[in-house]
Amino acid sequence: MGRIQQLPPSVVTKIAAGEVIERPASVIKELLENSVDAGSSRIDVDIEQGGVELIRVVDDGCGIAPEDLPLAFASHATSKLANAEDLFRIVTLGFRGEALASIGGVAQVTLQSRPHDHPLGAELTCHGGQFSEARAWNGSPGTRLEVKHLFFNTPVRRKFLRSTPTEVGHVCEAFTRLALAHPKLHLTLRHNAKDVYEVPATAGLRERLRLFFGAEVSDKLYALEARQGPVVLRGYISDPACERGTAKMQYVFVNGRCIRDRSLSHALQEAYRGLLMTGRYAVAFLFLELPPEQIDVNVHPTKVEVRFRDSQALHHLVFSAIRERLRAENLTARLQAPALPHAQWTASPMPQASTRPGLPEVTLPFAPASKEPPSQLPEGESPEASGEALEEANAVTNGTPAPPAAPPPPDGLKAIQLYDSYLVLETLEGMLVIDQHALHERILFERLKERIASGPLETQRLLIPEPIDLTPEQAARTLEQRQALGELGLGVEDFGGGTLLLTCYPAILGKRAPRAILKAVVDHLMNKERMPNREVLLNDLLSLMACHAAVRAGDRLTPEEMAELVAQRALAQDTHHCPHGRPTALLFSRQELDRQFRRV
Ligand code: ADP
Ligand code: MG
To answer: Are the CB atoms for 228 and 317 separated by under 8 Å?
Structure first.
C-alpha cells in the first residue's frame, strides 16, 4: 500500500475544527454570527462551566426549514453563498459553511429550528460528527442550539483550555464585540444560571459603550465621523487621559465584523502621537463601512483578518479623521480627586460664602484682590477663558445655580513656581498646574517644527570643530543620516577611526553643550532597529533637541520667564502634551475645588 492516504471524513472535520474552534468563545462567536445573519432581534446565551460543559444560544431569527436541517451540519454547506463571485460581495458574517460542521465534529450538539411560516419545526443531533435522524420539534420560531461537552472526543484540545474564569472572559469578549457591532439587538448572557449581561436594544452606540465599559470610559469619548468616497468611518475615540497599557480596548469593525488590522492600528497610534507616552494606547471604537467588493474577507479561518483593496487610503482616512477630531478638543488633563464620603462632612456643613461668620479673610498671593473691579482680559491671553468652557462648566453643576463667576484674573498670566519645577496659576476655568519642562519642550518642539518647514535651522559654527569619539558602527550610522542632521543644524564630518567632528550646532540650543545633544542623537539612531522614514526621524530628533534645550525641572525661573512660558502656551499648538505624550498641565477646575470644599 502506498504511503499517502486519503484521510477519513471524521479526521478531516477535526482538522478543520482545529482552525475554527479553539475554545468556548469561538463557538459563541460562530453561533452569535449565525443568529445575526438569520436576522434575529433577540439572542439569549447561556453557558455552564465557562462554556465547556454547555453553550446554549436561542434566537428569534428566520430559522431553518426542516428539510435543510441535515445540511446545516455538512461541511461547506451554506445558504449565504452560491458561486465564487459571491465571495467578493459578502454581506453576511458567515459564508464558509464550516462552523456548524466543525462544532458538531468536536462536541455533542442539538439543533432545533423552526421558520416563522412553518407550523412545526425539526430537531437533529450531531455527536462528534455522527448525525441522528431529524425529528419533529414543537418550539417557537427561531433557532436553538445546544453545544455540550466541548472537545469530548479531542482530549488534547480540552487540556489546552484555561480556568473557567479565563474562558468566561473570552466568552464575554466575543459577546461584547458582537453587541457593539449590533446595537439594535437585544442580548443576554448567563453563566451557571447567573446573569452576566442583559443588553437591551438601543439606538445609540454610546449607551452600549457605557453598559459594557462604564462611565469612566464612555464619558471620555469623542464622537467621530468621516467619509472618503463610498467609505464611511464612524465611532468614538477617547481623550488621551483615558489610556491603557495594552491595545485591547481598541476595537476596529469593518462592515459589522470585529477585525484586527496592523495598518489601521498603526494609523490610530500615529494619530495619538505626542499625546500618549510610549507603550500606552488610547481607547477607541472604530466602525468602517465600505462596499463589500473592496474587501476580501476570505483570508482567515475565523475571519478576524481581512484584506483591503486600498489599505493606504483607509490608513489615511483613519489617521486624519482622528487627528482632526483631537485637534478640535481642549485636551488639558483634568484632575479629579475622589470625593470624600458624604458622612464625613454632613455633620458640620461648610457655610456658604455669603454667610461665613468670623472667618479671617485669607488672600492667596496669586488671587486677584476681590475688591478691584473685574478688568477685561485682552483677547487670546487666557486660553482657559473661553465662553464655551464656562458654559459647559456651569452645566455640570446639575441644576444648582452656579456660584457667581469669579472676576477674571487681572493678569491671567501671573504664576508662582513650586519646587522650581511647576507653575501654578489661576485661570477662569480653574487652578492650572504646569510642568515647566514639559510645556517648554512642547513649545520649542512646535517652534522648531515650524521653523524647519521653511529650510534648515540656523546654525552656530564651532570655531574649533569638536571631536566626538564613537564606535565605528555608531559613527557609520550617524554619517548615514548626515543630511537629516544637517537640516536640523547639526554638522558632522568623518574624522576617521570612529571619530566624528562636530562642526556646527543649531543656534536655538544656545549654551547647551552641543556634544551632549549629538550623543543623544547617536543613542537614538542606535536604538532603532530599522531606520524610520525621514519625517519620523526628523520628528524624533526635533523632540530630542526640544527636550535638551528646554528648561529643566529644578531650574528657578524669573517672573518674566514664567510669564513668557505661560504666554507661549496660548500660542503654540498641542500645548497640552509634551512631544513624548506626557501632559504639560493639570487643571483642577473651579467646580472641583468648590465640590471638594463642599461649597456646592
Ligand atoms: P455559514 O454561517 O458560514 O453559512 P455555518 O456552518 O455557520 O455556516 O451554518 C450553516 C448554515 O446553517 C447557514 O448557512 C444557515 O443557513 C444555517 N444556520 C445556522 N445557524 C442558523 C441560525 N441561527 N438561524 C438560521 N439559520 C442558521
Ligand atoms: Mg456561520
So the answer is: yes
